[in-house]
Structure formats: structure tokens, C-alpha cells
Amino acid sequence: MEKLHLGVLYGSRSCEHEVSIISALQLIRAIDRSKYDVTPVYITQQGEWYTGERLMDMALYTDFDPFKAGLKRVSLDLTAGSGALIHYEPGKGLLRGIREEVVARIDCFIPVFHGLHGEDGSIQGLLELANIPYTSPGIVGSAVGMDKIMMKHFFRGMGYPVLEGVDCLRSRWQADAKGMISEIEAKLPYPVFVKPACLGSSIGVSRADDQKALRDALELAFSYDRRVLVEQGLDKPVEINCSVLGYDGETETSVLEMPLTDVGTLDFETKYLRGSHSSKGMASMGRVLDPDIGEDVSEHIRSLAVSIFNALDCKGVVRIDFMIDRVSGKVYITEINTIPGSLAYYLWAKKGVTYPVLIDRMVDCALKAQREKDENSYAFRSSILKNVQLGGKTPKGGKL
User: Fold this and answer.
1) pLDDT tens digit string along 181-198?
2) 10 has which bridge partners?
3) What is the pTM of this model?
4) For the chain, how big is the Rg over CA atoms in Å?
5) Distance (Å, rounded) from C-alpha 182 to C-alpha 259?
6) pLDDT interval class at 267 (50, 70, 90)
7) Cα(75)–Cα(49) distance, rounded to whole angstroms?
8) CATH number for position 203
């Protein structure tokens, strides 16, 4: 049986560039090579696409130099269904032109981006245009899942439980910082959390317990994004995460996890830099699997996770994060991660779904979604073009 050819996309112009590299190399090493051929496709922070076996060397990324590495710069052929990664280089001789080499033909892409220009719907739109299967959620789910402000409006509109928040613009902050702080304090009690709208991995996120801390937090967040969400905080909430896998109403939830942190918020350092296992990404973070929070609460969280997954028409594997108020016991939705760190594989292992099997199921979802898409009709014939004369008059005497 002929093997499927997978292309693993990662890197890109994002503050979470390095985290994406870790997640991607983890995934590539877990792929069953008896079933798949694999081509890594690394997108630099300048937006250039490269491929080559040497991309599997983590040390290569410390001071990336594609010329020393002997990699090939490639472009994706956007002809629908082509899947070709093409390398262009100058020909030789007097009549030299540009020589094209098809480096690989990809049957299915696995996007392993975190953050902008990859997790936010941009790459998903490119792959939709190229008509190539891919394993992440689609354009809408990815875009909403990346934008914390739009995500909160979506959740609230769907009736899901969310904490109160205030949307803020950099232009308003620069024009009237004092007025913005007054507005936030009038609407939200301390503590609050200040978050850049379109970043992940907790980059630029700060907790503020007073006005000075709020001012500092806003300054930091606005350095990363022109739009910022200030959200009501809970005092030492119980954080619970749940992964969902599937497509088109056929879903399964992972075991739940309770991340362990002693700093009051799960920041970038806690997630990725503490200890001696930072190269393992989210998989190395301290956590309790199957936490004892009561079966009713656990089932409520799983039910909410599946409902959100389906409402955003997701596919593949996502992770949805929740908080439980220790005082009231109420569950709130924090966010959805449409391409979670380490693809949340560590949440599936306890259910007997190994990482290679998880990848198989992600690919199956992508291929099923592509078959569904290919059933759509994209042809609608009419006589409209026969009645148009550009720059002149229509046959009935009217002007175009």
C-alpha cells in the first residue's frame, strides 16, 4: 500500500516561534514511518519556507543559517490539489533561466504553529485555496480561537460561562490612559488579568492587583498587540484543561488535567522554561491527570468542551481551558487552543491513545473533511457574462 506523504508546517512569524519548533519536532519523531513519508517545512521568522532532513536537529535553530545547513527553500504550488513543494534556482549557461524542482508532493499537511501567521486561520486559508487536506481546525475556528476578544464575544453569544472583560485599543490608551484605567476599574474588581488579544503561550499576560500594576500590565500588553483584553480575575482558581479530538460531530474527550503552578497564573516561564525539560514543551509541565474535582464537575467540563468544539466546527485535536472558582464552584471557560502545545498528546496517553495513533486520527479527520469539501459544487452557470459589455452599454441600453 502506498504511503501518504505528510508535510509538517511550523515556525512562522510569531512570538511563539520557538514553542512551535519544539511541538513540531516532537510530532515528527512520533509519526509512524511505516505508514507515512514525512517532509518537515520550516517557516522562518522572516516568512521563508525551507525543507530538508537537517531540520530535525534542534541545534540548527539556535542561529539559523539555511546556507550552512544545506536546506532547500521552497514554495507551495497553489494550484488546487497539486500539493507540490517547489524549489526554484537559477539555471546554468548563457540561456539560463529558473530551474524548478518538485521537492515533494504533500497529501496532507499537519500545521504545528502557535500564534499568529499559522494558528490564526492564515495558513488554513492558504491550504483551503490550495485544496490540500490539513489537520487543524478551519479558517473560522482558528481565527476565533486566536483572538481572545472575539473568542469571548463568541462564547458569551453562545451562552457559555465566561468572566467579565473590557476590550481596549492602543490608540485609546495612548490618547487617554487615565480614562481607560478609570473605565476598567469601574467595570471590574481587582484582581484582573491583562492579555494581548492575539498572542498565546501566556506571552504578555499579567495579573494586576492594583492601579499601578494595571498600568504596567497595559503598557506591556500594548507592546505586543494593538488590542488588549482586561479580564476579571479569580483568586487562585482551579485550572482544568480538556482536549477534544474528532470532526463533524464525532468527538472524544481526553482525560482532564490540572496544571500545577505556584505563581498564581500559568505564565510562559512555568509552561516552557522551568526545570531541565524545556525542550519537551507543554509535555514537561507539572500537572495532575484525572484530578479529583467530582464526577459531576468533570462531566460538565467535558460536555462544555465538546459543545465548544462543535460550535466552532473544529477538527483534529484542540485543548480547551477552564477555571473553577474555589468559592462558588462555578466553571468558566478561559480559551480554546486550536493547535495546543505538544498537540496535547500527553492528555491522550492515559486513555491508551499513543502519539502515533493520535496522529493517525488527526490525519483521518483531515482526509474526511477534504472528502466532504470535495462533495461541494463550485460551478454555477448563468448568462450574466453574455449581457456585460465593459466600458460601454448593456444590450438594453443601460450603462455598466
Assistant:
1) 999 999 999 999 999 999
2) 42
3) 0.89
4) 24
5) 34
6) low
7) 7
8) 3.30.1490.20
